[in-house]
Prior knowledge:
Layout: H1 11-23, H2 28-40, H3 45-54, H4 63-85
Helix pairs in contact: 1-2
Amino acid sequence: MPDMLIRNVPEQVQDVLKRRAKEAGMSVQGYVVQVLEEHTGRMTMREWLAEAAKLPKVPGLVAADVVRDAREEDDRLLEERLRERFPEAFE
């Protein structure tokens, strides 16, 4: 795997990354790679809209409904993860 060097990272960003890596039981390098993988694994709004524009037009389909459904699914998944990690908070 090729290396990447990032210069001029603000000190407070480095501090947050170090703290979060420690909390996750990871090295800073491993944590940063994980964050980058998660970030690049999601489409940007521009990419999402470009993909959505390629979809066939469906009569009666409202884009706002699709976005709302996607957000509700995201919320549901987040709640599932939180319940798994912190069940006592949902008692």
